[in-house]
Amino acid sequence: RVGCVLSLHHFQFLVTKLGEDWIFLVLLGISMALVSWSMDYASAKSLQAYKWLYGELSWNVPLQYLVWVTYPMILIMFASLFCHLVAPQAIGSGIPELKTILRGVVLKEYLTLKAFAAKVVGLTAGLGSGMPVGKEGPFVHIASICAAVLSKVMTFFSGVYQSPYCYTDILTVGCAVGVGCCFGTPLGGVLFSIEVTSTYFAVRNYWRGYFAATFSAFIFRVLSVFNKDAVTITALFRTKFRMDFPFDLQELPAFAIIGISCGFLGAFFVYLNRQVVLFMRKPNALTRFLTRHRLIFPAVVTFVVTTLTFPPGFGQFMAGELMPREAINSLFDNFTWTKIWGSASPPGLGRSSAWFHPDVNVFIVLLLFFIMKFWMSAVSTTMPIPSGAFMPVFVLGASFGRLVGEIMAALFPHGILFDGILYQIIPGGYAVIGAAALTGAVTHTVSTAVICFELTGQISHILPMMVAVILANMVAQGLQPSLYDSIIQVKKLPYLPELGFGHISQYNIFVEDIMVRKVKFLCSQSTYRELLYLLDSTSLKTIPLVDSKGEMLVFTFLLHLHKIISWYCLKQIKSWEEAEMDKPLELDQIRIDPSPFQLVERTSLHKTHTLFSLLGLSQAYVTSIGKLVGVVALKELQKAIEGSTRSGVRLRPPLASFRDTIRKSSKPSKTSPAPSSPELLE
Amino acid sequence: RVGCVLSLHHFQFLVTKLGEDWIFLVLLGISMALVSWSMDYASAKSLQAYKWLYGELSWNVPLQYLVWVTYPMILIMFASLFCHLVAPQAIGSGIPELKTILRGVVLKEYLTLKAFAAKVVGLTAGLGSGMPVGKEGPFVHIASICAAVLSKVMTFFSGVYQSPYCYTDILTVGCAVGVGCCFGTPLGGVLFSIEVTSTYFAVRNYWRGYFAATFSAFIFRVLSVFNKDAVTITALFRTKFRMDFPFDLQELPAFAIIGISCGFLGAFFVYLNRQVVLFMRKPNALTRFLTRHRLIFPAVVTFVVTTLTFPPGFGQFMAGELMPREAINSLFDNFTWTKIWGSASPPGLGRSSAWFHPDVNVFIVLLLFFIMKFWMSAVSTTMPIPSGAFMPVFVLGASFGRLVGEIMAALFPHGILFDGILYQIIPGGYAVIGAAALTGAVTHTVSTAVICFELTGQISHILPMMVAVILANMVAQGLQPSLYDSIIQVKKLPYLPELGFGHISQYNIFVEDIMVRKVKFLCSQSTYRELLYLLDSTSLKTIPLVDSKGEMLVFTFLLHLHKIISWYCLKQIKSWEEAEMDKPLELDQIRIDPSPFQLVERTSLHKTHTLFSLLGLSQAYVTSIGKLVGVVALKELQKAIEGSTRSGVRLRPPLASFRDTIRKSSKPSKTSPAPSSPELLE
């Protein structure tokens, strides 16, 4: 008896222990490291098989071409078909959807095991095809699903994981782990996921993300050591630049030029990507045909891309034989290509030899590579397979940076004189800076610099890289929304624009100016007929319940619609009489939220925005002396912000003040906000 | 006429442009870089003079001793006196106070130009004395003052800077710049300041901090290039470890041991520091004497410390001649001391030769250095001068790590065999890891790892360093609050404990369980007599104003006490009659907040905590159907959290669940929270 009680006590202790937060983090880290490593392994083997097949057929060029084109096409079509059949939610990057989910919006079927399977299989096939598709975005999605599923398992041990607040915490950590173990960059992973997904960030999640991401990256790198891919834990794309004098202050203008150009190029990339997506969504004969035959679009894109990169064909002028990772490794190498082009290749050149064409200048090859890969990446990432844009853009940035670096090396062939010593220019360093700047411009983040340090294992270029990334961000944020926000807008997902810094009007506009005054509500005397009418005329998920009809006192209860409907239908089947309809509601059967969010009329727009983005609200009720006077939903807020900042339908990035000032000075300022939308209820 | 209008338009445009946010950030960056560099320059010159004086007198040891002791004593006493006379708020680190201010509490006189002057002068003198005092904490304070003052200047151009919300944004950036340009570590600076000062962080401030800190660090490093201190922009404590094989997986246990030991040591440091402060605050004859003669305590501490470090005396056994920065440089060097001890010193050893004593083993010197500096640092940081603990702890951690590294090098004198190649152990790498782990343990942050990468310019040890920092944090957070929280508690500053992750009770406790139900309020019919009575019986700064006494409807107006008092006193002088007292209040003369924060009774503890920490509230009113039913202040929340988590009076770090579980399993769980305090109002 005593033994039984004791063992029960021990069991409970064990269960509580297993429900601990850090065990969740460790499990998440291990599982994601395994997934990441297996995917890398499988796609690397696939690429190896591809290269081997291609190499074996070198005696017959037409056959070689057939293999070069067919192999990726089969993989991409398989990925597309698999995703379409298993879970269409797995298509695309996943970061925009996660950003929306973390904002508090419920997107159905996005965090299921089905989506997990589709994403993992589709992504592995996509990466194994050698097409310019990225791993980072989908991996964030995969890690979030993993975190969500794991947290459900953990509820067995601890009830905490059921809370909706906790859900956000879990997904935030999932995102951090996703980026962190994708390339073994825990620190940059945490920062990138914060910048990309959050508006307000709980610092306790910083710690948790750091813990899980480090553990995950650690396991991920240890796995490759065990597999003899690496001798010890080092960076993925390790560089070997000289450290005693990494760069001279006189090179800074070149770095600044890279930053500014990358800003423009990044904005153009986002624009191009959106135009392709918008074109595909426009209803005409071609898109209807493509929608009916889903595999044709990815097949055609793959065919065109692979045909152009076919090494014996046009590919020889654009280093077409290089797979994305090989391209990065060669672009980050420590040679000066303008110097060795034409002469015998030095030892240790490796795959970089792909950049040398006997008749064509290195500059031309780099430029062609950049231009061709630019539109290829913008188009490839719109294919209906799981694919991110981070890695393709990273390759683009690296090639652009390298181009500038090689031009610098050609302009200063003897290096730069400082203090009597001639220091050679390192074009590889320019490539690293270009990669960070362009990814930063496309994603509107600055932590790409941190990811670059971790990927290359060298931090000596820290200051010029940060300057370039900041300049790229300034330009890109002034021109276009980030790639993820662009997708959110194109997909029409609910979002809340950023409040810019420095708009006095956000303190002068109050919630009473933007709220919808005609609120539909229920009271304790409401009949089923009224409820039916209410349900027909609104699409809201929650309805306020007030004390007495006359006084409109907020009773602060909310009805959950899905519950009412099912229960209402039941009622209908049971009793067909009309009389039943006039009976009052049985309120105790209804799911009620005892503390809905209340605002008062004089709450400023700034405060409202802060509360909405902090708490992930989708709507809030406005009360005056306890009386319900209005409701504010995400939509009203969105319109008010866009009205008050006068930036049309575009998101407000932190630096949009640049473009605002230009407009402000040309247009007279109006303090009244956009009229509130009445469409919420009528 | 047209020209005038045009130029006015241009002027307005210019004024708006100058009020732009990025101009504020650039100005802040430049000014802080100049301050940081000037302080470094002045303190370096002071140390140089100190060393020169000491060196010149080598023919006479007693005279040498006199200089060695007197020089720092004069500087420290000067710093102490200067701070006491100009601004006593400048004493200490400043980070605890800023954390409190960023929580929304108004601390008077902490962000004034006087405090700025006292802090800059006092800190320069302190750093120039060679005593183990740090620059990081005070520098955060300096930068925040600079940001606050600059924002006041900016209000001339743009009204936005007046808003109280904006104030938090400005101080957050100030903190980031402070850490960032202190050692030229922009990235680590931003992250460290987030971790140390915030609970919830607005991601838009991440961008702004990054921008300002990079700019500042850039100028800071460029200044030293212009001053010929450095050839180009590189790290402050640059290391030159081999990069091809930085460490072997078999060395990981040693790194883990460093992490765990640093956790314990860090917690002990915080404990020791608090005990010294508590002893100094205990009222007895000694402390009364010391309070009356303020200069005696710093003088005695300086005397004892310098006497013990006197190089020809005991200092020879603990490398006493090394100033803090020299110590770091030598501890991070690339030699293996156990190998070169006793033999002729190799070229390039430099200041590291201070660690070699002809008769005493290197281990003993390192151990003595660590033990002596440990208590010296803990005591020195309590002196009444501006002083941080970051740098002293960093030195301690480096020496501890180096000790472990040298032991490892002695255990494996031929290095570690891997794949047929023998890799030497790098003790300098252990020193870097130790430094990051110990500072992380003392401050409860993980971004010290990032600061280390930036300080050393090498990122090759990233994974072991992050593992060590995380382990150190796990241990330290389970044992003691962070140094800054410890100071907050000792100084009795208002604070809000962290809500731990994984306590289901935080969702089951509602605000109605913890609120104070007896609320004092005013109504429109209240007389001056009632107001006087109210003011006498409460110390609150704001008083709720309700509609009608009987119904207690919240009219959602707040009175600002300071305004009332001054205006009330005026009334008293004007009219001495008693009759005047019964007149009703003139409400339109009173400062009113039209949207105070309202909660409903069923708001969960978790939600309340989130709102309080997000919005920096100090109190919120609880309403039921519009009626005022209670008030919750920081104090109630604090007690409820400490009650519900059962961790006594200590703060809840993210990993405190470790110590909770142990207690939970031994004590039966009770779901009822601690009884609310009635002392707020009666």
UniProtKB/TrEMBL annotation, chains A, B:
Pfam families according to UniProt: Voltage_CLC
Parts of the chain that traverse the membrane: 22-44, 65-87, 139-158, 170-194, 206-226, 252-274, 295-314, 355-376, 388-412
Domain of life: Eukaryota
Example of a GO cellular component annotation carried by this entry: chloride channel complex
Its membrane topology: Multi-pass membrane protein
Xref: CDD domains: CBS_pair_voltage-gated_CLC_euk_bac, ClC_1_like
Cited Gene3D superfamilies: CBS-domain, Clc chloride channel
Protein name, as recorded: Chloride voltage-gated channel 1
Organism of origin: Astyanax mexicanus (Blind cave fish)
